[in-house]
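Input record, target 12 of the design panel.
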């Protein structure tokens, strides 16, 4: 059978299309939609901003064990469906809870478990199994779902649902929407191409190659590249999380006090950030398949850091700066998340990706969740966001420097020659 015939029957692109929807529904809508409700919590329950932003990091810390324990042991597809159910349950809980902070924090615990099971790791593993030569493009297409669905999360879901009824009902409906992940994953997704008698990219496997066995955790912890990647991604994603969680509060502090105007501005900013992020994923995914992934990642991380100061320029007398900030920040943000699994697969091999990301992702989640809480505390102590945002900028720049320290090329252990594979240590 010719290469063209093999590729034409390749099921992997259907996997990528399904992942676009499952990733967008499971992560894009709930994660990027939640900050819309923060000021409603503040007004309705009288909670402080540190109280509101503590739920996510507290839950992320208490669930650090979940990823390393489960993600490499079970089917990513089945975990995805379970995670969607947890996320839906959490949003129904957010919409029906009273004013108890402890109930609020417990509900965040349910959400984070859902995020781990249905979020980046299962999607990264499935796409990396189905693709090798086209992995950058396929991963970019998958992450487009987060950009598209995250982009509409506030402007076209949270805002109209809240204005049509109330914010509690909007949260419950969001949970119902997330459940659409289950039928898509059940009927369309498959963990590996071998389940359908196919191979990565739909191409023949060289006869003198055999897949390398997965590396163990001790191997990863001995690699300097592992630590550079973890520190770099933690700092950059922590900075992005701080901006996403506090952006609406920053706009309010800078003079946008009318609730309708504030809702519109926040919705527009999130929409343009996430739509621009789709372009960032496409462009950087394309470049990552053709040029050094390290170079692409370094440029992306410096772009994220460099656009953070633009947030200071968004004021009532110059609201147009929100679009400049949103487009540039979104472009970098979109590629930022997507490049981490691509770099991990290159550095440690696709068969070790689940184990590597099961450590890196919880660390990144710590940054993504605790950084916003620290920003809340700094803002409460200083009375403004000025100092806090400068620290966020410095952390983003540190993340870019850490990525610069990565080796230019990875171990390339996705496939080993037959004569070498037999000598690989067990469990490695």
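The sequence produced for target 12 reads:
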């Amino acid at each position: 059978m010719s290469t063209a015939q093999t590729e034409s029957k390749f099921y992997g692109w259907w996997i990528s299309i399904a992942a676009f929807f499952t990733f967008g529904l499971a992560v894009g809508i709930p994660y990027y939609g939640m900050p819309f409700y923060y000021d409603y919590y503040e007004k309705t329950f009288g909670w402080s901003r540190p109280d509101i932003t503590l739920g996510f990091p507290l839950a992320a810390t208490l669930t650090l064990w979940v990823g390393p324990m489960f993600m490499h042991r079970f089917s990513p597809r089945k975990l995805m469906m379970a995670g969607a159910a947890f996320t839906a349950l959490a949003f129904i809980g957010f919409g029906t809870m009273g004013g108890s902070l402890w109930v609020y924090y417990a509900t965040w615990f349910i959400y984070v478990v859902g995020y781990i099971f249905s979020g980046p790791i299962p999607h990264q593993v499935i796409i990396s199994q189905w693709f090798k030569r086209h992995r950058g493009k396929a991963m970019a297409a998958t992450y487009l779902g987060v950009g598209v669905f995250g982009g509409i999360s506030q402007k076209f879901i949270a805002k109209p649902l809240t204005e049509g009824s109330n914010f509690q009902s909007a949260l419950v409906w969001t949970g119902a929407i997330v459940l659409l992940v289950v039928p898509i994953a059940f009927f369309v997704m498959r963990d590996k191409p071998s389940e359908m008698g196919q191979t990565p990219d739909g191409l023949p496997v060289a006869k003198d190659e055999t897949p390398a066995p997965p590396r163990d955790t001790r191997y990863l912890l001995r690699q300097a590249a592992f630590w550079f990647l973890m520190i770099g991604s933690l700092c950059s994603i922590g900075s992005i999380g701080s901006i996403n969680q506090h952006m609406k509060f920053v706009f309010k502090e800078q003079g946008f006090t009318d609730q309708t105007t504030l809702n519109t501005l926040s919705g527009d900013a999130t929409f343009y950030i996430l739509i621009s992020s789709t372009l960032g994923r496409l462009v950087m995914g394309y470049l990552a398949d053709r040029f050094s992934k390290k170079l692409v990642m370094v440029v992306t991380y410096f772009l994220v850091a460099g656009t953070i100061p633009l947030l200071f320029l968004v004021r009532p007398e110059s609201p147009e700066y929100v679009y400049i900030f949103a487009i540039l920040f979104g472009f970098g943000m979109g590629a930022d998340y997507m490049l981490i699994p691509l770099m991990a697969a290159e550095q440690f091999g696709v068969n070790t990706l689940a184990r590597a990301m099961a450590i890196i992702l919880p660390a990144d989640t710590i940054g993504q969740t605790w950084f916003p809480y620290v920003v809340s505390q700094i803002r409460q102590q200083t009375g403004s966001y000025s100092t806090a945002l400068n620290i966020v900028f410095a952390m983003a720049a540190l993340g870019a420097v850490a990525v610069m320290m990565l080796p230019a090329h990875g171990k390339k252990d996705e496939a080993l020659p037959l004569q070498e594979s037999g000598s690989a240590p067990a469990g490695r």
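DSSP finds 19 helices and two strands in the chain.
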